Amino acid sequence: MTRLISLLAISSLLASPAIAASPQNSEQMRQLSEVVFKNYPPGALARGEQGAVYFVVTLDKDAHATSCEVTHGSGHPLLDIETCQLIVNHGVFNSARDANGRVVKQTTEGVVNWTIPGREPVPVNPVLLTGNDKPEKQVCKKSIKTGTLSSVERTCMTPSEWALQSEETKKTYDDMQGRKGHSSEAAGICVGPCDGTLAEFIRGHQ
User: Fold this and answer.
1) Between vectors from CA 133 to CA 82 and to CA 65, what angle results, nearest 5°?
2) pTM to 2 decimals?
3) Fewer CB atoms inside 10 Å of the end CB: C or N, the chain?
């Protein structure tokens, strides 16, 4: 089932006199406007780009996004790329339950109708994205928050960004652990690719 993400579909709110007349919904509309303007890609906003972007999002038992992938684009690459970033960081979903009432993981489809406030939304004309035209998916992982023993934080990045972070973390860890090898002073032996400074130190203490 495809859902229109109301969090971002500000065009539908602006078009409804009944909603605009409600103080509560007026506040909601203001908040939605802030979300749209804050996350609208500057280049796309400057060019007046609008359009609907379809996506598939996977949720954990707490209804937090674990991954998001664009399936159909708006015809504007910046809006396509921003969509899943917006969903994993700002999308609000309800938990799903099975027939026994137990909370379960879920996968659902949705569409973000990027519309600049004050303008008419453009006709929905989804474009199937494949290959290089398709933005990288967003993948979210949970980890223990630095400096705590139990607090958990969630980080969302593309597979390429995760791979880069992994390489940087590995390099930092190797540097901290002395990846250049360990030594045996008694034998004057350096195990591993030791640098000249360490080798000279060992020879000087034989």
Assistant:
1) 40
2) 0.68
3) N
